[in-house]
């Protein structure tokens, strides 16, 4: 696949087929992704791959804690209050998703089910959990994590494998630390749900939009 086609074609997948990814395929994706840049070639990232029965157990526990209304402090702080311009874009995406699924804005039950699908990882057969050292500044560590996570997603897309970068996957860090035996000195940064996309599902094919370059690029001559 050409690089530009991969960049423009990759999208967040919100329903996966019940088809396992061969371990060698996942291994090859992660092995190739290690060539992503990092500050001073420190390669500070660490990944845990969750599949099979243990993933099902995590999925069920994650969903149950959400339904019960339990909240947990994340290992890496997540922004909650957005500037108006960014909040507007976030809201537009929400409207498109609800419209695509024929969900009315005041249908709280239907909207809750969408969130529950997130806690279930949209049925993904694989979850890759990215961690950073606890004794490194989060700001710089997350820069490097962003680089390699994007690389993983592009490599997966090239193999016909869909991904969704999910904060919801790491909303219960204590559970993940336990299930994956992640040392306490590691911080869980983000999760990547991976699997083969179900393109019959509406949320996997709605039209996406991006801001015009004039909104975020300033030319100085």
Q: Can you describe what's shown?
A:
- With 221 residues, the chain is α+β, with helices and mostly antiparallel strands.
- The protein has one domain: NADH Oxidase (3-Layer(aba) Sandwich).
- Helices cover 41% and strands 13% of the residues.
- The protein has a 4-stranded antiparallel sheet, sandwiched between helices.
- Helix 2 crosses helix 6 (138-158).
- The longest helix is centred in the last third of the chain and has 21 residues, at 138-158.
- The protein is globular, with a radius of gyration of 18 Å.
Tally of separate helices: 7
The average pLDDT value, as a whole number, equals 95
The CATH superfamily name is NADH Oxidase
Shape: globular
What class would the helix/strand composition place it in? alpha+beta
Order of helices and strands: HHEHHHEHEHE
- What's the number of domains? 1
- At CATH level 2, the architecture is 3-Layer(aba) Sandwich
Query: In terms of per-residue confidence, which ranges show pLDDT below 50 for 5 or more consecutive residues?
Result: none
- The rounded Rg comes to 18 Å
CATH topology: NADH Oxidase
Strand order of the largest sheet: 1-2-4-3
Q: How much of the residues is beta strand, in percent?
A: 5-15%
Please give the number of β-strands. 4
| Terminal Cα span | 36 Å
Can you give the helix content as a percent range? 40-55%
